[in-house]
Amino acid sequence: MCEKHKKTRPGATLDNQAAHEQDHRLWSRRDFLSASGLVGAGGLLLGKLPVRAFQPTPLLAALANGPNDRILVLIRLDGGNDGLNTVIERGNTHYYDLRPNIAIAENNLWALSNEYGMPLATNALQPMWQDEMMKIVLNVGYPEPNYSHFRSYDIVASASSSDEVVNSGWMGRFLDHEYAAFLDAPPTVPPALQIGVQSNLVFKSDAANMALAISSPEEFYQIAQTGLLYDTSSLGNTPREQELPYLRHTANPAFRYAQTIKDAYARGKNQVDYPTANYLAEQMAIVARLIKGNLGSRVFMVEIGGFDTHADQLESHPNLLNRLSTAVKAFYEDLAIGDNSLENNVLSMTFSEFGRTIYENGSQGTDHGWGTPVLLFGGEIGNGLTGTYQDLSNPNPYTDPEFSVDFRNIYATILQDWLGNHPELVNFVMGQQQTTINGLVPAIAPAIGDNNKCALLGHNPHPTLPGVIEIKYAMMQNGPVRVQLLDAAGHVLRTLQNEYKNIGSYIFNFRPSDWYVAPGYYLYRLQAGGQVFQRDMKV
């Protein structure tokens, strides 16, 4: 069976070794070039990865004085997680026929329900399931899947369709555009923080990476304990070492967030024992301590690698799931301890670039496939399963059963219900109208979003008209709208639009030559609903 049903997608299996290795080389090369570009733009290096301090983000500014103290933790399962061996349909004979060597036996499961179970390796999650702190979305994917790690991760990170290339991430667009007109000062805390994640497209906006990237827990501890990126005290007398103090003294003050990270780390405290020899647990312990220390960041991202299980999956995959489960359990136990229990304020969500084939391969592993589950954790989110399990009854030898839930619907639900944003803003961030999943997470009430009036959504070059800039905004109530162009000093130069608009999303096509506007740096302003929004723009 294994030989008969091998797939022919280049790079998806180890059979085409050259293509598979090329896929990984492309991914690594892309990360290197991306990092190099950030360094060239003025970033600093932590180890081998860049760190850059950016202007404040809308989310941070809005939430600093608002009622929303909700936090999102993204957990990346790097490599493509096997969904069929993560959540098992109990008693499904087709599953055991397709995977005679790597299927999880019934006596090695704990019960989610009469229909579904999870491997005993994830038993640490059972109390969370019973306490209604865990939900599962089955068979998550997207149409026309791509089976390259590099390309599929870009799709999942950017929330794009498989036939389009988008160079910004879904969270980066959100952080860049939410309440952008209210920003007037640099932040003292990072808008988002990611640990150990090289590929940072998730947080990339059109202008910059909106997250502070720290390459490893060791790098983090250096900052948290000293407030410095680089040690300046233990250098020798060689010519090179004599040059380093100046460079390091120059670089350290430029790290805007060092002091606030150090302060939060000192205030916070881990109050449970996290699993040892568990890289994910070490990252989540850091996140818990920063949350408990009231750092102020609202989005975090951590990762665990190794899910590209082409061989010996029955040995490696349960170990990975065990590390994930024990790390998550310790994280929420830690958040629950203290004067102010925080587990209800923190939502964690797993994601992976794709799933694995429904067939096992000749190496007792699985190759790159389609749907995979998303696991959600948090206090009072409830429990249950959403989506439809893969239909294994009539398998196609060349492709997997179709996915049941589009990953972008999950993102939209998080943005709207967990982070409290208006659907118009959510649809702009996602690039198209999305369907949210009712009841997936507790919806914040009232939604803060953009005060239900209007939002300036930003600008970009027109995709087909040379020299035209699209200025985008949304109206959440009917009313008059004025769009103006200002010089760098804030003086009004042109009124581009002054009319009444109904509820909806709008694009104003601005061609500078039509308005006799010379190349340079300008501001543009939206006035509507009694509010004023303003952003920078280069013409």
Describe this structure in words.
It is a single chain. This protein is of the alpha/beta class and 539 residues long. It has two domains: 17-430, no CATH class; 454-538, Sandwich (Immunoglobulin-like), CATH 2.60.40. The protein is 29% helix and 23% strand. It contains 13 helices and 23 strands. The protein has helices at 17-40, 58-64, 93-98, 126-130, 149-158, 170-177, 217-226, 239-254, 258-267, 279-292, 313-336, 407-418, 423-430, and strands spanning 44-46, 49-51, 71-77, 88-89, 109-111, 116-119, 133-141, 192-195, 211-214, 299-304, 346-351, 355-356, 368-369, 372-377, 382-386, 405-406, 454-461, 469-475, 479-486, 492-501, 504-510, 521-528, 531-538. The strands form six sheets. Strands 3, 7, 8, 9, 10, 11, 14, 15 and 16 form a nine-stranded mixed sheet that branches. Helix 6 crosses helix 13, helix 7 crosses helix 9 and helix 9 (258-267) packs across helix 10.
Quick summary of this structure?
With 539 residues, this protein is α/β, with parallel strands linked by helices. The protein has helices spanning 17-40, 58-64, 93-98, 126-130, 149-158, 170-177, 217-226, 239-254, 258-267, 279-292, 313-336, 407-418, 423-430; strands at 44-46, 49-51, 71-77, 88-89, 109-111, 116-119, 133-141, 192-195, 211-214, 299-304, 346-351, 355-356, 368-369, 372-377, 382-386, 405-406, 454-461, 469-475, 479-486, 492-501, 504-510, 521-528, 531-538.
